[in-house]
Structure formats: structure tokens, C-alpha cells
Write a structure and sequence with these properties.
The chain is of the alpha+beta class. Bound molecules: 3,4-dihydroxybenzoic acid.
Length: 375
Amino acid sequence: MLSQLLACSGVDTVVIDRKDRAYIEGRVRAGVLEQGTVDALEAAGVADRLHREGLPHDGFELAFDGDRLRIDLRALTGKPVMVYGQTEITRDLFESRFADGQQFFFDVEDVTLSDLRTDRPLVCFGHRGDRVTVECDYVAGCDGFHGVSRQAIPTDVLRTYERVYPFGWLGILVDQPPVSHELIYANHASGFALASMRSETRSRCYVQCDPGDQIDDWPDTRFWDEFEKRLGPDIASGLRRGASFEKSIAPLRSFVAEPMRWGSLFLAGDAAHIVPPTGAKGLNLAVADVRLLARALAEHYSNGNDHYIDTYSETVLRRVWKVERFSWQMSNLLHQFPAHSPFEKRMQRADFDYLCGSEAAQQSLAENYVGLPLE
Ligand code: DHB
């Protein structure tokens, strides 16, 4: 996405990835886009299929031990969200970048970053048996939580903040119509469940699981039994079970690294921050980062203005912390925490009851869900 945005401003990039294109296009990620993300994809010229195939949603539901609350995003904020898989966005971006003649290196190994404190940093890596060196003006570290970019910042400069949650999410894809035409987030004594979708005929469903669980612990029958129980009988009566064709487990983590710029290196997306998936902010946050980074670099190249480069880290982090807060709150509201005392369980229930009775609370939830302003 950064490469696409920069190309729109006439700035050349070289994209390198540890994985290959087929792997990247095959992996399943989240699927809810904020309006701001849709706007950015439009501005970048890659939203045609998104508008043909994406599903605009005006609201979603919360279910708490069988009680239900619809959050009317459109009425509360004037904005919808768009259901369209991250995998599909990646495909659309690849298609556009390849058509443009973008320079890519896939399947690279042993990436090292050097001279980051100069205006001529180097990125070196192994590629098809050769050692390649790219000399550039700036390095954008969009290489995820496990990437090398963040680790290139000296430990006496880097500050990190982390929370690990005592559970994971088990997700499946199945070719059955979604149980409801809107998303349902459920909290039940047995744990969290989320009924989502990728299309009118394809469902994406999640349940909270133990952090140490393996895929083999969760045959489809166990998954559906838990999923039905957690959604409650009213919702589950409309459910069509099917054979899953994708099944994966993700741990839940909140993480922030500061600063997000060091010399000629910028961090963006998961390289700098992780949110737990509740509320689907990971991709949206990464897109917000690269919109601000693209603006900073475009200003630098078009008129030598480095104001946005110099304020990148501070500006982005202010928004990052607010989105971290929202994802943490949604996660706290909707999961069963093994260590919760009866008091904490009551507090969680009171949070839900407050939400049900307060339009102000619903509006606060809704404005975060549809996406906070870019800055
Ligand atoms: C999906 C994932 C999320 O984390 C979420 O909050 C909503 C939807 C999804 O994969 O469809």
C-alpha cells in the first residue's frame, strides 16, 4: 500500500518480502475496513473490485450471555464499515503494482539494515543465491512484528509496551451463508465467539481458545458445538454448519514500540504495534500509518518540506495509542478471563449493561469502530 501511494506521488520504491507472492496471497487475515481505509484505497486507484464485491455494513451486534445489543454505526456516526478481506486488498494491490512495473524481491533472506543514521542507508539481503544491496534515501520497515526493522533501532533508544492475553482465537472459513447479515460479537460463560463473513456465501467464524491449543484439538464438530453455545440458541437456530477449509489459531497481544522513526528508518504497521483482533483494527491502523508516511515522503520529494517526516513518529503514535486503547477495551469486554474474580465478572457485565442503556456509550464505541480521524 505504501508503494502504491508513493507511486501515485511519483516516488520510486523497491519492495522486498521474506515470503513469496503465492504465500502472501493465500494467507487469511481480517476483513473489516474503516471508511478512511476505503477512501485511501480509492485515492490509490485500487478500489474497483472492493466496490463491486465488498459488503457495506451499517451496524453490528453484541451478545452477552444471550442478551443482544445492535450498534447502529450509520445512525450513531453517519458512517458504515466495509467487509472485504485483507487478502483481497493484497491481491488488488499486487495486480496494480505489477501492472506498473514495480520492482519486487520476494523470498529474500538474511536482511540487514545499515547506515540508518545517514541519508544513504543500505538494505542488504540474500536473493536466489546472490547477495543484493539496495542503496536508498529512506527505509520503510513494514515487515511485521517478527521483522528486522524494529530490531535495527538500538535498545537504548527503543521503548516497548506489551500485554499478552491469556487466550487465543481459533478461526475457520466455511462455504456457508453467514448466520446473520451483520457481524455478531458474543461473550458467553464458555468464552468469546465472532460470527463474521467474507461474502454472502462464505462465513468467517472465531471462538476464544486456550493459548496452548493446537488445530488438532479442534475438529469441526467441537468448533460448531462451542460456536453455537456461545452465540446462544436464538442466533444458532439459523446457523448452517459446514466443513471448514481453513483453520488457524492466533494469539492475542497488545504491543507498541516507540519511536517509530530512527534516522532514515520508519516503522509502520505490525513492525511497531500489535492490537488484539477484537474490533478488526490491525489492517486499518497499518493503512493509517502508511497514509501519513506517504504524505511525509511526498512532501519531502515535492518541495523539500520535512515537517511531516520530523513529526511522523509523534503524530502516528498519538493515534496508535487511541486505537490500542479501543482494541484492549473491546477485548476486555468480550472475553472470558480465567483469572477474573466474581467482582471483575460483574464489572464486565456492568460495562455491557451501561452500553445498552447509554446512547453516549454506544456512540463512543461506534466512532472508534468506524475509525478515528487520521490525526
Ligand atoms: C473479522 C475479524 C475481526 O477481528 C473482527 O473484529 C471482525 C471481523 C474477520 O476476520 O472477519
